Amino acid sequence: MSDNLFNLIASRTADPQKIFLTTPEGRDLTYGALFAQSGRFANVLSALGVKTGDRVAVQLEKSPEVIALYLACLRTGAVFLPLNTAYTPHEVDYFVGDAEPALIVCDPTKREAIAPLAEKYRVPALETLGIAQDGSLVETAHDASADFATAPRSKDDLAAILYTSGTTGRSKGAMLSHANLASNALTLIDVWRFTNSDVLLHALPIYHTHGLFVATNIVLLAQASMFFFGRFDAKALLQAMPRATSMMGVPTFYTRLLGEPSLTQDATRHMRLFISGSAPLLAETHREWAARTGHAILERYGMTETNMNTSNPYDGDRIAGTVGLPLPDVALRVVEPETGKLLRANDIGMIEVKGPNVFRGYWRMPEKTAEEFRADGFFITGDLGLIDARGYVHIVGRGKDLIISGGFNVYPKEIETEIDALPGVVESAVIGVPHKDFGEGVTAVVVTRPDTALDEATVIGALQDRLAKFKLPKRVIFVADLPRNAMGKVQKKVLRDEYREIYAQG
Ligand code: AMP
Predict the structure, then answer these.
(1) Cβ neighbours of residue 120 closer than 8 Å, sequence gap 6 or more
(2) Is residue 164 lining ligand 1, measured as CB closer than 6 Å?
């Protein structure tokens, strides 16, 4: 039997008339129409020479047709390779050279800029797809048959390659199999109780695991529906909320929604679940959200390479500042980074995971892949954290964000939590900056409320009784905003680069 993820999706579709998605412009797309379009696209892909195992690189603005194209790739046995829409042609050059796709699909407005890359790397085909159901791919597909015999795939065959954001060094292509995607979506449907009565608010980008796999695969496999927004717009989401049941968002969605006076208990009455992930949700946001809406946000943790690993419980305590419990089919442990020795409850170390969710390795990087796996098959996530006495996982930050000051380990999250609790502080990021005496100097970058007059001495003074001396920030810098990427992650590398000279005088 084929393990093609598309077959699994199709096998769960009882009613082709069921609405798959609705756009804010009022466009409805049924499951039947989605599958028909995926069949047409699959026929076009085959006619263009795309074969099983070939990569199809896409850099496309969010539209329902991109989902149809994703399904078409599954159906032809090709490997879907979405690229961040913010990447410049100069950046896309690397991905095309690395992935050697058989086809590139880009926005009609980018064709001219991408064509030289296609030529440079001898990519056999370049097509376009726009957000107004336009572009060469749609035009050619118009006359194609909607029937397509889905290619058989085995569970370890690749369904997609997603490049990691690559904050250090080159971006790596995470190879995800049909079984990686299917197993994780089915597990999440179970633990988050998704059914065909659900209507998800979808405002995430679909070049990233969160919007593409967590959100879209769940909807598809649960035969649910979604409101499909081109981008996040707090007012538009609030307008749709009375007709929705669930939302998946990054923390900034929640903070922006909290800025809307119309976010009330009444506005969220029809909702059963708010999920957050991709970046840490401030405990304060969790509390404010509960106070305003009566809903406890459910925070979960995952990454491109592993799909989702942990989740706060559906029933039971959703604990602010934690990412919950390992998913039922995921083994998760915390070890000493250097030795791999298992640590006890509450000890901070490297988070490692193993399960059907974990990727097949980095594209054409066998050495890098081998480095990131232990001999017993556990993947070294690069995230530092702990498991508390109740089994809840806490993330204290990326390993590369760990600060070593005067030989002591300083975990930024601990300092950030203390600073965030100070009156007038909105949020903070603690980084290590080169320091001639200490190796790295603990440095706090802080955002305050507009009506607050906090200064460096007050912040340091307030922390003095609460933190060991080696953990105290040596400098506190006040900024209007923290730099974030599209998924709401604070870009600490940008901050480290910006402030790398501040201790230059000793
Ligand atoms: P990405 O591969 O872009 O999805 O990024 C994955 C990384 O995001 C993880 O390795 C974590 O460092 C971080 N991350 C994801 N979810 C959470 C969360 N709920 N809390 C803290 N960090 C998270």
Answers:
(1) 93, 96, 97
(2) yes
Q: Whose CA is nearest to atom 9 of ligand 1?
A: 303
Report the C-alpha gap between 257 and 389 in whole angstroms. Answer: 33
Label residue 167 exposed, middle or buried (CB < 10 Å: 0-12, 13-18, 19+): middle
The secondary structure of residue 215, as a DSSP letter, is I
Ligand 1 center–CA 46 separation, angstroms? 36
298-303 and 307-311 beta bridge pairing: antiparallel
Q: Residue 27: helix, strand or coil by DSSP?
A: coil
* Cβ-based burial of 439 (10 A; exposed 0-12, middle 13-18, buried ≥19): middle
What gap in Å lies between CA 355 and CA 291, rounded to an integer?
A: 36
pLDDT in tens, the chain (506 residues): 699 999 999 999 989 999 999 999 999 999 999 999 999 999 999 999 999 999 999 999 999 999 999 999 999 999 999 999 989 898 899 999 999 999 999 999 999 999 999 999 999 999 999 999 999 999 999 999 999 999 999 999 999 999 987 655 678 999 999 999 999 999 999 999 999 999 999 999 999 999 999 999 999 999 999 999 999 999 999 999 999 999 999 998 999 999 999 999 999 999 999 999 999 998 989 999 999 999 999 999 999 999 999 999 999 999 999 999 999 999 999 999 999 999 999 999 999 999 999 999 999 999 999 999 999 999 999 999 999 999 999 999 888 899 988 878 898 998 999 999 999 999 999 999 999 888 899 999 999 999 998 999 999 999 998 998 889 999 999 999 999 998 889 999 999 999 999 998 64
Q: Comparing C-alpha atoms, which of 111, 71, 68, 66 is closest to residue 92? A: 111
User: What is the distance between the alpha carbons of residues 377 and 137, in angstroms, rounded to a whole number?
Assistant: 41
Which of 253, 383, 411, 484 is the best mutation target for the ligand 1 pocket, counting ligand atoms within 8 Å of the beta carbon and taking the most?
383
**Would you state the torsion angle of the CA atoms of residues 360, 379, 311, 404, taken in this order, to the nearest 10 degrees?**
-140
CA dist., res. 140 & res. 124, Å (int): 17
Q: What angle do CA 245, 248, 253 make, to 5 degrees?
A: 110
**Is the separation of the CB atoms in 188 and 214 below 8 Å?**
yes
Residue 88 · residue 114 · CB < 8 Å: no
- Residue 172 corresponds to which tokens in the numbers above? 């790596």
Distance 279 CA to ligand 1 centre (A): 5
Looking up tokens 């597909």 gives: 141
Atom of ligand 1 nearest to the CA of 487: 3
Token pair for residue 158? 């690749």
**Phi and psi dihedrals of 262, rounded to 5?**
-80, 0
Could you identify the atom of ligand 1 that is nearest to the CA of residue 397? 12
**Which tokens sit at 119?**
């030529």
How far, CA to CA in Å, does 373 sit from each of 130, 205, 349, 351, 386? 40, 29, 16, 12, 19
Q: Which of 165, 206, 401, 489 to mutate to test the pocket of ligand 1 (most atoms within 8 A of CB)?
A: 489
